[in-house]
Amino acid sequence: MCNRAIRVDEKCVKALVHRSSARMALTQYDDAISDLEKAIELSPSNTETVRLLEIAKATKAENEREARALTLAESQVLDRVSASYNRLICVPIDSSSASERMFDTVT
Prior knowledge:
Blueprint: H1 2-8, H2 13-25, H3 29-42, H4 47-89, H5 98-106
Helix pairs in contact: 1-2, 2-3, 3-4
């Protein structure tokens, strides 16, 4: 509905703000910020839109920090798994099986 309203009237601040809210919910932060910046151009005295723009920028920055931290954590996990796997495949295999060794220790 917001897109349709904006197509009819590109200067519809209310539709731009509503569409930015929808885009934030979809994590389309750059598009949401663009909508809010356009709304502020059209209505610079609208303090609520300015506040929403600040929130959108802060949310985008937080999301980017979390994504970088997650990528780092995933990388660390992969490094650990790789190191463990390399240690596992590099262990020499004893010629006797585990069950034979157990039998030897019992007798």
